[in-house]
Each structure stands twice: as structure tokens, then as C-alpha cells.
Design a protein that fits this description.
5-stranded antiparallel beta sheet; transferase; EC 2.7.13.3; 20 strands; alpha+beta; kinase
Length: about 550
């Protein structure tokens, strides 16, 4: 009996020690898992918010670049931009054209507002109070057009916002900085309207040093920065840029309210900073559940189970140890999965930023000063469509490369039916695919759109081969039945792409010239950069399944 009691006591002591150790380990692992899950969810939310803000700021830049200020006062200036601003689908509350008018232009402005059918065409202060026009001795910022037009917005044009406590300083900063500027949070449309921010982009006349006016877009804070669903792990609040002791929150209906931050209240679990309109905005994230309490509860349950199992016979003790090991491995798999997912998100963010940088370069160089707006719009849409096509192909292949012949599809290349493609169907890297897609579009879009010298459309031949012991990629584009007189001249962006960007991206060289009957473009590059196995290996590692660590 004494021996049996000793064995039972020894088993009980081992069981207590193991139960305490298991509870401690589970407690730490639950805290780590909750922390990783919360950090990942917050990073994803902050990244989505930043992408959303970048899209809005890009819309303002594109709109101000496409906008052409009039030689006289007009009240229907947003008409050419309506299709463009709605194509971005950025769900703005109202878009507006605010003209910077001289005192001697205000009478003509009132006549334009009246002719446009706005309900109150008089030039007045921002609060609809009468404005003494004769007493003005300097230009003022007057709202001359809005979109959308509805009974509520039709009464807004004619207001001068120079003395508005929020919009006035914002317009002054935009004029001083000569770039888009965001306002402080402000009620939109009316005094008790939804809380939002206004983004103003200055518009310059050709050769002008001061803005002729501003394109503005108003957005609600709830959909812009404070969106999160009921199942999320956190609640998000926006720090008031005017008072660090206040913050904005949105309820389930999307209504934004301001609240004071209590000194004895809970601290934010994490703080993330996003940029918008030339300023930083702080987002405070509050965890909805207490991870420490939940981990303690889980650890307590594990300890209780361990103590209960201690009373079972030695055979069942081994079974308990096996289950504990399996649970440990599953937790390690979950931690590894979260880390792998964070790496994938970082890689995706890097690639998205690269694509956005390419698109920003395309927009900037296409919409340069002096460019014909119709030609620029056609080229801009085509170049972005070519980028969209190659991104779609890369997504279908999980970013492991694209078949070279797939870049010649008619949905992305003009005159694809006239292009004879010949060459091995090699798989090029993501970086090479983006450069080659823009290169093929640029070559095809500048081929002869009319009849050639012999009365026929040019016949285009695209050949490539891989030759030599060093595996060198040779590409040749030749347009027959064309000449320097009939082929449309390459744009500045096209010349830079053909002669510098594409060759440098592939680490090769290029040349272009005319023969007696054709136009030729040749590109030579090493296959190591065209295929880029390093990029493919990294993508395969990120997409590989997570396996538990070996014990």
C-alpha cells in the first residue's frame, strides 16, 4: 500500500507540474496568437485605408491635370470631367469647381450661375449671408459648379469660402503648396450634415504661377477611414487633428460623432498613421476583447483538465501527453501561418506600390503640359489597360510569370489581328511582363492607322528567339509597308519607354530604325533578367503550404 501510495503521489506530482507547464505555455501561445491576429487585422485595415486615401488623392490629381480652366467665367466647368470622376468609383459626397474670381468678374459670374439654373445665383458668403461685392479689393474663391446636381446641391454654387473656418484655410494651404490638401473634419453640405473631409487640388492655367481655382472632393469619414464590421477584432477611431484629446468614431449606422478621450480610459491597442492631402492622420485601434483575460481563462481550463487527468491511471496519462503535443503543434502551425500570411501581405503591398508607381509615371508623362487632351486620354486609357491585362495574367499564374504570347491578346494590343507572332512560348517574369506589355502597346498604338504608301495597312511581324551559349533573348518588331512619313511619331513617353525604360528593366539594349519598306525595333537582353528565377522562387516559397515544425 505504501508503495502504491508513493507511485500515486509521484504521478500526482508529475501531473500537477505538467498541468502547470501546459497552462503556462497555452497562456503565452494564446497571447501570441491573439497579438498576431490583431496586428495583422489592423495592418490590413490600415493598408486598405491608405489605399483608399491614395485612390482619392490620385483622383484629385488626375482631375486637376485633365481640367482646363476657361478664358471667361463659366458655371458648367465639371461637364467634361463627369465621366472621368465617376469612373474611379470613389463614392464622393460632392465634387465642386471653386473659381478664384477677381472683383470685376463677380457680376459675370452671377449671370453664369443664373443661366446654369442654380437656385441662388448671387455671390454671397459661405453661410448664405449677403456679400458686399463693391467693397472687395482682391480675388475671392467662389463655388461655380457641383456634381452631382440635386435639389440639395443646386443651392450651394455662388458661395465664397474665403472666410469659412475650415475650407478657407484649406484653400490657402493648397494655393501655397501647389498640391492637393485635405481639410480638418467638417460637416458636409449643411451645418448638421455628415462629418467628412474636403480634398482640394489647385488648377493652374497654362503658364500661370497662381491657381485659377480648385477642384474639390468631399468624402464622409465613416466610409473613408472608420469602416469596420461587427466581426472585426477591433474598433477604430480617428484622432482629431485639431485637439489630441478628442477623437471621431462611427456607429453601426455609419454616423460619425466626436468624443473626448478619458484620461482613465483604455489606451489604444495600436496606433497607425496614414497620409492624405499632405498631412498625417492618426488611427487609434481598440481591441474588442481582453486578450490577457481570455488567455488566463484558457490556461485555467487547461490546468483544470490536467489536474483531472492526473487522477486517471498511467495508461491514460500517456494519451493526455500525446494530445498536448498535438495541440502544441497545431498552435505552432497557426503561428507560422499568421507569419507567412503577413509576409505575403507585405509582398503584395510591395508589388501593388510598384504598380501604382508605374501608373503614376504613365499618368504624369501622358498628361504633360501641352499634350492634346483627346490623344492623351486615348493613350492613357490604352496604357493603363495594358497594365491591367498583364496584372490579370500575373494573378492567374499566382505571379509566377506570364506566357510571352499571351501579351499579344487583342484586348490589350491595338491592331492585334495584323501582328504575326513567331517565337518560343517562354514564360517571362512579372517585372519583365509589365515592361514588355507597355512596350508592345506602345509599338502597336503608333503603327499606321490609315493606308500605307502601297494602299494597304502595314503588316506587323513580331519575332523573338533565345540564342547563344549565354542564352540571350532577341526580340524584333517590324512593320512592313510603312515609312517615317506615314507612321505616327512616337510620343515623348514612348521614346523614353522604347529607348531607356524597357531595355534598362531587362538589363539589355534596344535600337529602332527605318528601312526602305519597314520600321524596325530590336531589343536584346539576357534571359536571366527576362525569366528572373529569383523572383519565381520567392513567389513559390510564399505560396507553399505551412508545415508544423519537426519535434
Amino acid at each position: 500500500m505504501v508503495r502504491l501510495g508513493f507511485i500515486v503521489a509521484l504521478i500526482a506530482l508529475i501531473g500537477v507540474l505538467l498541468s502547470g507547464l501546459a497552462a503556462y505555455r497555452v497562456h503565452d501561445q494564446e497571447l501570441a496568437i491573439d497579438g498576431i491576429a490583431l496586428a495583422r487585422a489592423i495592418d490590413v485595415h490600415a493598408s486598405l485605408v491608405q489605399d483608399r486615401l491614395t485612390e482619392r488623392e490620385l483622383l484629385a490629381r488626375v482631375a486637376s491635370g485633365l481640367f482646363r480652366t476657361p478664358s471667361m467665367v463659366k458655371a458648367n466647368m465639371l461637364q467634361p470631367l463627369r465621366s472621368a470622376i465617376y469612373a474611379f468609383k470613389t463614392d464622393f459626397v460632392v465634387a465642386a469647381w471653386i473659381a478664384r474670381l477677381k472683383p470685376n468678374e463677380l457680376t459675370a459670374a452671377e449671370a453664369e450661375l443664373k443661366a446654369a439654373g442654380f437656385t441662388n445665383p448671387s455671390i454671397r458668403d459661405f453661410d448664405d449671408q449677403a456679400l458686399d461685392i463693391k467693397a472687395l479689393d482682391k480675388p475671392i474663391n467662389v463655388l461655380m459648379d457641383v456634381e452631382p446636381r440635386n435639389p440639395e446641391t443646386l443651392s450651394i454654387p455662388g458661395r465664397a469660402f474665403d472666410r469659412h473656418s475650415v475650407v478657407g484655410p484649406m484653400l490657402a494651404r493648397a494655393m501655397e503648396n501647389a498640391k492637393p490638401v485635405a481639410s480638418d473634419p467638417v460637416p458636409l453640405l449643411r451645418q448638421n450634415g455628415p462629418v467628412g473631409v474636403v480634398l482640394a487640388a489647385p488648377v493652374f492655367q497654362e503658364g500661370g504661377s497662381e491657381p485659377a481655382g480648385f477642384i474639390t472632393f468631399s468624402y464622409e469619414l465613416s466610409s473613408l477611414m472608420l469602416t469596420n464590421d461587427d466581426s472585426s477584432l477591433f474598433a477604430v477611431a480617428l484622432k482629431d487633428p485639431r485637439d489630441s484629446n478628442d477623437e471621431f468614431t462611427a456607429n453601426e449606422q455609419g454616423i460619425v460623432t466626436s468624443r473626448a478621450v478619458r484620461q482613465d480610459g483604455p489606451l489604444p491597442s495600436m496606433v497607425r498613421t496614414v497620409t492624405f492631402g499632405g498631412r498625417d492622420w492618426s488611427l487609434d485601434y481598440y481591441a474588442k476583447s481582453n486578450a490577457t483575460v481570455r488567455a488566463q481563462q484558457t490556461a485555467t481550463i487547461v490546468a483544470a483538465i490536467g489536474l483531472a487527468l492526473t487522477g486517471i491511471v498511467c495508461g491514460l496519462f500517456g494519451y493526455v501527453a500525446y494530445n498536448n503535443l498535438r495541440l502544441s503543434r497545431e498552435i505552432e502551425v497557426r503561428i507560422g501561418f499568421e507569419r507567412r500570411l503577413t509576409a505575403v501581405i507585405d509582398e503584395l503591398n510591395h508589388r501593388v506600390k510598384n504598380i501604382l508607381a508605374v501608373i503614376q509615371s504613365i499618368v504624369t508623362r501622358t498628361l504633360r503640359h501641352g499634350a492634346d487632351i483627346d490623344v492623351a486620354r486615348e493613350l492613357l486609357i490604352g496604357r493603363i489597360h495594358a497594365m491591367s491585362n498583364v496584372v490579370t495574367l500575373l494573378s492567374e499564374s499566382q505571379w509566377q510569370g506570364v506566357k510571352l504570347k499571351g501579351l499579344f491578346e487583342s484586348r490589350a494590343i491595338p491592331h492585334a489581328d495584323r501582328i504575326a507572332v513567331n517565337g518560343p512560348d517562354i514564360t517571362v517574369s512579372a517585372r519583365a511582363a509589365q515592361s514588355l506589355s507597355l512596350l508592345f502597346f506602345e509599338l502597336a498604338s503608333h503603327s499606321d492607322e490609315g493606308l500605307s504608301l502601297v494602299g494597304k495597312h502595314p503588316h506587323i511581324v513580331a519575332n523573338w528567339e533565345v540564342a547563344g551559349e549565354d542564352a540571350v533573348f532577341h526580340f524584333r518588331w517590324e512593320e512592313f509597308n510603312t515609312s517615317q512619313a506615314t507612321r505616327r511619331a512616337d510620343s515623348d513617353f514612348g521614346l523614353i519607354l522604347l529607348d531607356r525604360v524597357a531595355p534598362e528593366a531587362l538589363g539589355g539594349t534596344a535600337k529602332r530604325y527605318f528601312t526602305d519598306v519597314s520600321y524596325v525595333y530590336e531589343l536584346t537582353a539576357p534571359m536571366d533578367t527576362v525569366v528572373d528565377m529569383t523572383e519565381r522562387d520567392r513567389t513559390e516559397q510564399l505560396s507553399a503550404p505551412v508545415r508544423p515544425a519537426k519535434k
